[in-house]
C-alpha cells in the first residue's frame, strides 16, 4: 500500500514540476550594460524564489546573459539550474552589490539547500560557460587596494545532495567554487581556468591572480572526478570542519581522481586549530596529472588557538612534469598573514617559518608519485618539534632530475617527524624518514 502511495505522490510531483526559461521570465540576453546586469540578476532571483521541488531554471542555448553579483537562494529542495547558454558577470566593481558588512556579494550563493543540481545539456565536451571576467579584480596593486573583498563565482553552504556537472568556470574574481559545510557532493566533468596570459607555466606575474582557487570544499562524502583546472592558487583545497559545523564535524570521506591540474596544488588546507576541534580525515587524491604546476602536493597548517587534526590522507598515482616550485610541501602555510611561514623563506636568511603546534598530523601517505625535472628541490616535510608529525610514509616517491635550490644535495627540508618511513624505491630519500626502500613492492 505504502509503495503505491509513494509512486502516486512521486508522479503527482513530477507532473507538476515547472521548467522556467530565464528569457521568458524577463531576462535580456547579449547586453552587458549595468542596467541589464541588474535587471537579469533581479529576474534570476525572482525566478529562484518561485521554484518548488522538482523545478528547473534554464539558461537557453546559444545566448549569453549578463549579471552582477547577488544571485541568491535559500531553503530550497531538489531544484535544478540548467545552463545551456552562458552566464557572464560584469567587471564593474562600482556596480557590484554589497552585503550588510559592505563586502561585495558572491556572484551566486545557495544556502541551506537539500538537493541542488547545476548542469548543462552541452555535455562533457562543450560544457556551459560561467564567465567571471575577473582580470580587473586581479593583480598585486589591486590586491593591495581590495585584498580579499572579491566575489566567488559560486558558493554553496550548509547544504546537501549537490551535483555539479558539465560546467566551465572561467576567470573568477576570487575563488571559483566554495562548498562550505556540505554533505553528499558529486562534481564531474567541470573545468576551471584563471589565467593572466596563455603561457603554459606559472611565473610571478601569473601568480598575482591571487586567490583564484578552483574547488574549495569543507564537508563530508565528496566525490570530484574528471575535471581540468588551471589557475594561480590552490587547484583543489580541502577546508576544515569543526564541532560547531552543521552538516558534519569533520571534513572527511573525500575522493578526488582523474584530475588534470596546474596551479598551487592539490591541497589540504590551510587548516587551523579551533576551540571546537578542527578535523580533516580520510581524504584521497589519486590518478592525477600536473603539468608545470607551481606547487604539487600541498598540505598546510596555519596558526590558531584550540585543537585540530589532519589524519588518514592518501596521495596516490600522481604524476608531475616540470613543477615551478617545491613540488611536495607538507607543513606550515606560506602566506603574508601574521605568524605564517614567510613567502620569502628560505631564500631570505631573515625570513621565518614557524610551525603551528596545535595541529596534529597522523598517517599521511604518498604512494606512486613521479615528479620530473622540478625547478626547485623536491620538498618540505616540516612538523612541530613539540607535536611532531607521525606515520608519514613515502611509498615509491621518485623525483627525477631534481633541482638543487634551496636544499642542495639534501633535497628535502625534513624535520619534526617521528615514525616516518620511505619505502619501495623512494628517491631521493627525505632525511627524517627511515629508509625502508629495500623492501620489495608487492603487487
* Distinct helical segment count: 5
What integer value in Å does the Rg equal? Answer: 23 Å
Instruction: Report the span from N to C terminus.
Output: 52 Å
Average pLDDT number: 94
Helix % is 10-25%
Number of strands: 29
- Low-confidence spans: pLDDT under 50, at least 5 residues? 4-13
Structural class: mainly beta
Q: Beta-sheet strand percentage?
A: 35-45%
Estimate the global geometry from the Cα principal axes.
Answer: globular
Quaternary structure type = single chain
Largest sheet: 29 strands, mixed
3D structure, described in words:
The chain is mostly beta strands and 443 residues long. It has 5 helices and 29 strands. α2 links the parallel β1 and β2 (56-59). Residues 4-13 have low confidence and may be disordered.
Compact summary:
The protein is built from five helices and 29 strands. With 443 residues, the protein is mainly β. The protein has a 29-stranded mixed β-sheet that branches.
Describe the structure using short key phrases.
single chain, 443 residues, mainly beta, 29-stranded mixed sheet, 5 helices, 43% strand, globular
Secondary structure layout plus pairing:
Elements lengths: L1 H14 L3 E3 L12 H17 L5 E4 L4 E4 L3 E4 L2 E7 L2 E4 L18 E4 L2 E6 L3 H4 L1 E4 L8 H7 L7 E12 L1 E4 L6 E12 L2 E3 L10 H4 L7 E16 L5 E3 L2 E2 L8 E12 L3 E7 L5 E14 L5 E6 L5 E14 L6 E5 L26 E14 L6 E4 L6 E12 L11 E4 L1 E2 L2 E3 L10 E3 L7
Parallel strand pairs: 1-2, 2-5, 3-6, 4-7, 5-8, 6-9, 7-10, 8-10, 9-11, 10-12, 11-13, 12-14, 13-14, 14-15, 14-17, 15-18, 17-19, 18-20, 19-21, 20-22, 21-23, 22-24, 23-25, 24-26, 25-27, 25-28, 28-29
Antiparallel strand pairs: 16-19
Amino acid at each position: 500500500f505504502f509503495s503505491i502511495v509513494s509512486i502516486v505522490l512521486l508522479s503527482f510531483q513530477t507532473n507538476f514540476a515547472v521548467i522556467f526559461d530565464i528569457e521568458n521570465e524577463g531576462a535580456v540576453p547579449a547586453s552587458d550594460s549595468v542596467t541589464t546586469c541588474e535587471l537579469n540578476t533581479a529576474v534570476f532571483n525572482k525566478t529562484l524564489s518561485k521554484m518548488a521541488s522538482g523545478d528547473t531554471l534554464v539558461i537557453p542555448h546559444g545566448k549569453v546573459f549578463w549579471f552582477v553579483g547577488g544571485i541568491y537562494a535559500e531553503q530550497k529542495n531538489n531544484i535544478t539550474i540548467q545552463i545551456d547558454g552562458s552566464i557572464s558577470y560584469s567587471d564593474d566593481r562600482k556596480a557590484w552589490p554589497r552585503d550588510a558588512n559592505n563586502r561585495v556579494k558572491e556572484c551566486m550563493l545557495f544556502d541551506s539547500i537539500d538537493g541542488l543540481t547545476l548542469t548543462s545539456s552541452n555535455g562533457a565536451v562543450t560544457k556551459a560557460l560561467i564567465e567571471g571576467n575577473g582580470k580587473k579584480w586581479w593583480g598585486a596593486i589591486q590586491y593591495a587596494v581590495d585584498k580579499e573583498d572579491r566575489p566567488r563565482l559560486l558558493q554553496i553552504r550548509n547544504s546537501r545532495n549537490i551535483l555539479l556537472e558539465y560546467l566551465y568556470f572561467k576567470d573568477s574574481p576570487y575563488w571559483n567554487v566554495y562548498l562550505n559545510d556540505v554533505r553528499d557532493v558529486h562534481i564531474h566533468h567541470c573545468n576551471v581556468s584563471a589565467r593572466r596570459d596563455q603561457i603554459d607555466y606559472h611565473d610571478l606575474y601569473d601568480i598575482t591572480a591571487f586567490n583564484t582557487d578552483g574547488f574549495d570544499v569543507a564537508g563530508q562524502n565528496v566525490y570530484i572526478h574528471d575535471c581540468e583546472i588551471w589557475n594561480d592558487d590552490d587547484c583543489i583545497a580541502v577546508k576544515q570542519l569543526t564541532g560547531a559545523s552543521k552538516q558534519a564535524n569533520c571534513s572527511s570521506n573525500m575522493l578526488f581522481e582523474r584530475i588534470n591540474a596546474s596551479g598551487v596544488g592539490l591541497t589540504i588546507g590551510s587548516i587551523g586549530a579551533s576551540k571546537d576541534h578542527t578535523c580533516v580525515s580520510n581524504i584521497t587524491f589519486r590518478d592525477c596529472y600536473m603539468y608545470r604546476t607551481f606547487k604539487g602536493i600541498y598540505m598546510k597548517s596555519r596558526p590558531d588557538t584550540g585543537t585540530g587534526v589532519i589524519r588518514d590522507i592518501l596521495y596516490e598515482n600522481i604524476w608531475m612534469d616540470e613543477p615551478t616550485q617545491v613540488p611536495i610541501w607538507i607543513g606550515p602555510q606560506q602566506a603574508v598573514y601574521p605568524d605564517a611561514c614567510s613567502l620569502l623563506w628560505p631564500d631570505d636568511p631573515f625570513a621565518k617559518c614557524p610551525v603551528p603546534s596545535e595541529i596534529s598530523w597522523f598517517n599521511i601517505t604518498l604512494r606512486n608519485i613521479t615528479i620530473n625535472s622540478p625547478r626547485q628541490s623536491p620538498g618540505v616535510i616540516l612538523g612541530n618539534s613539540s607535536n611532531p608529525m607521525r606515520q608519514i610514509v613515502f611509498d615509491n616517491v621518485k623525483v627525477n632530475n631534481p633541482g638543487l635550490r634551496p636544499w642542495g644535495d639534501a633535497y628535502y627540508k625534513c624535520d619534526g617527524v617521528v615514525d616516518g618511513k620511505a619505502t619501495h624505491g623512494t628517491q631521493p630519500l627525505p632525511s627524517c624518514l627511515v629508509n625502508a626502500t629495500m623492501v620489495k613492492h608487492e603487487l
